[in-house]
Amino acid sequence: MAAFGHTFPFYAGPKPTFPMDTTLAIIITIFLIALVTFIIILPGIRGKMRLFWLLRVVTSLFIGAVILAVNFSSEWSVGRVSTNTSYKAFSSEWISADVGLQVGLGGVNITLTGTPVQQLNETINYNEEFTWLLSENYAEEYAKALEKGLPNPVLYLAEKFTPRSPCGLHRQYRLAGHYTSATIWVAFLCWLLANVMLSMPVLVYGGHMLLATGIFQLLALIFFSTTTSLTPPCALHLGTAVLHIHHGPAFWITLTTGLLCVLLGLSVAVAHRMQPHRLKAFFNLSSDANPMLEWSPEEGGLLSPRYRSMTESPEPRDIPLSEASSEACRKEGHHREPVCAL
Question: Which of 177, 209, 243, 297 could form a disulfide with 236 if both were Cys (CB 3.0 to 4.6 A apart)?
Fold first, then answer.
């Protein structure tokens, strides 16, 4: 029986929502702080190197932020629909709402927003998350959602991703998330190594690591697309509409960043072969830092230096001190014999 204006007292109210995932907000904040820090020291760099340095920093931070953010994003597969649907159990009331579904690598996020928000004397604005990480039990989280009495659209979508659902969405998306996340972590490690090598006189290996970063990102997309298409799509009926799932922003931005890394890696490798001096100038590295070392593009710089022998050195050989002093003594005669004797 309804009470207080058709509000069921045994249902929990909607949770307060944050406009952005807190994990993504932390990642973006960290990289923005790093970017601001580099911009502050930018005036200390002279000439054209200031522009080259800024371009390298912005590109590198963008790639690192994307790789780290998409690993925690819940928008690898998304779907949204506006529909008229039943609101809660034991009630014949229907509402007009926007229902959203975001599938990430570690779980599902379901949103329910009324149009308008105030309906049935309630604020209809729900944002619920159900995870299937190694330390989480999706079935237990779904059981807790049933106990809380969440709205029917939220429970319906959450039930489709349970392990016992005939749709099979839980198995394929959990498997896809596991392998995709592991591959993206390898891409992040390659990005770190690329930054280290590009700051040293081993640019060709930095280009190779950039190329590996892009390849692992593209492999992650292949794993996700292949695994999520193992079973036929499951129809998601919400009232008078059907919710369709498609690739989300995290998928496409990973594809863009992966292609960018492949392009940059190939560019560094080609420039190292064709124009090594211009490449070193772009990265503010000089091969004349030590004249006793010969730089070889094929050998990779200082990792395998070839030392010049005394016969290859263009500088004249120094005369030994004993020969120079005896020759000076013979020219001066016997006027400074005591000094020469010393």
Answer: 243
DSSP conformational letter for 42: G
Alpha helical stretches, state H, 41-111: 49-72
Position 265 confidence tier, pLDDT thresholds 50, 70, 90: very high
- C-beta separation of 14 from 126 below 8 A: yes
CB-based contact 200:222 (threshold 8 Å): no
What distances in angstroms separate CA 225 from CA 165, 228, 231, 245, 301, one per listed residue?
A: 21, 5, 12, 13, 40
User: Hey, is 248 helix, strand or coil?
Assistant: coil
Q: How far apart are CA 318 and CA 314, in angstroms?
A: 12
Q: How many CB atoms lie within 10 A of CB 270?
A: 12
Q: Are 202 and 269 in contact (CB under 8 A)?
A: no
Query: Could you tell me which residues come within 8 angstroms of residue 232 by beta carbon, excluding any fewer than 6 positions away?
Result: none
Residue 306 has pLDDT above 60, yes or no: no
Model confidence over 270-287: pLDDT tens digits?
Answer: 888 888 788 787 776 654
